[in-house]
Amino acid sequence: MLAEEKAGFDIVPVFITVDPERDNVEQVREYVKEFHPKLIGLTGSLEEIKKTARAYRIYYMKTSEEDSDYLVDHSIITYLMDPNMELVKFFGKNNDADALADGVIKEMKQYKSIKAKA
């Protein structure tokens, strides 16, 4: 069961490539289809990606291509943002799908509770 189904919240997942030289709009569109039907895939210019990565403190670097393997070393972080695009919490790579869903639900319920009191 998806986190939004368990908690009753609307969730909009977003993926942003860190390699816009390779990942054009069509490639990103096809890539995100493999993960979630609502996943939005974004790309942009090299400068836009650098600016975004800097803002979210994302590390990325292309590594050498060996025997046609394409590698980009990068941070593995999932950010939970509120409707105003303010950071609520980030989750590292050590969270499996269930831990991530539970963490998102917890944060969303807390956010909703705080907003209801305001």
Could you describe the 3D structure shown?
By secondary structure, the chain is an alpha+beta fold. The protein is built from four helices and six strands, in the order αβαβαββββα. It has a two-stranded parallel ribbon. A two-stranded antiparallel sheet has the order 3-4. β5 and β6 form a beta hairpin.
From the N-terminal CA to the C-terminal CA, the straight-line distance is 31 Å
Residue fraction in strands:
15-25%
What low-confidence regions span 5 or more consecutive residues with pLDDT below 50? none
Q: Taking Cα atoms only, what radius of gyration do you get, to the nearest Å?
A: 16 Å
How many strands, which pairing sense, and closed or not: the largest β-sheet? 2 strands, parallel
Mean pLDDT: 86
Order of helices and strands: HEHEHEEEEH
Structure classification = alpha+beta
* CA-based shape: elongated
Portion in helices: 25-40%
Strand arrangement in the largest pleated sheet: 1-2
**What is the total tally of β strands?**
6
Number of helices: 4
GO biological process, one term: mitochondrial respiratory chain complex IV assembly
Pfam families: SCO1-SenC (PF02630)
Protein name: Protein SCO1 1
Family: Belongs to the SCO1/2 family.
